[in-house]
Amino acid sequence: MNREVKRKVFPQCSPVWFLVSLLWTGCAARSYPGPVHGLVFDGTVQSIELQNHRLILAPLKPSQPIVFAYENTTKFWKNGIPIHADEVEPGVPVRVHYHTVAGQPVAHHIYVQAPYAPQH
């Protein structure tokens, strides 16, 4: 390939490679496996065991409760604001982004679903 052709091809490719490398770097930096947010589960908090790092959820459809482990790195959110695990109360709806380790679901993000404000 002569220099004239290289100048025309590579300047157009460099922005694409830059964006691809940013995407790959962002995905590789995740501390959990799988897609961007992994698996998702919606349910209602039955209880939270702060000392054992366990969150017990009732599924939306009648079924057995699901027990999620959570770690010190697990992020808890309410209305887009970070909260602590001890602020999660029984009876509130949550969405859990998780992955499995040795068959056990482990939460990495827990979003408390705030009810919508009534419209007047």
What's the topology here?
Blueprint: H1 3-28, E1 39-49, E2 54-59, E3 66-78, E4 81-83, E5 93-101, E6 104-112
Parallel strand pairs: 3-6
Antiparallel strand pairs: 1-2, 1-5, 2-3, 3-4, 5-6
Q: Can you walk through the features of this model?
A:
This protein is an alpha+beta fold and 120 residues long. The protein folds into two domains: 1-30; 39-112, OB fold (Dihydrolipoamide Acetyltransferase, E2P) (Beta Barrel), CATH 2.40.50.320. It is built from one helix and six strands. It has one helix spanning 3-28; strands at 39-49, 54-59, 66-78, 81-83, 93-101, 104-112. A five-stranded mixed β-barrel has the order 1-2-3-6-5. The longest helix is centred in the N-terminal third of the chain and has 26 residues, at 3-28. The radius of gyration is 21 Å and the shape is globular. The termini are far apart.
Largest sheet: 5 strands, mixed, barrel
User: Which class of secondary structure composition applies to the elements?
Assistant: alpha+beta
Query: Helical amount among residues, as a percent range?
Result: 10-25%
Order of helices and strands: HEEEEEE
Beta-sheet strand percentage? 35-45%
Write down the overall geometry: globular
Q: Tell me which CATH architecture of the largest domain applies here.
A: Beta Barrel
Average pLDDT taken over every residue = 79
Number of helices: 1
Radius of gyration: 21 Å
- Number of E-type strands: 6
Biggest sheet, spatial arrangement of strands: 1-2-3-6-5
Instruction: Let me know the CATH homologous superfamily of the largest domain.
Output: Copper binding periplasmic protein CusF
Low-confidence stretches: 22-35
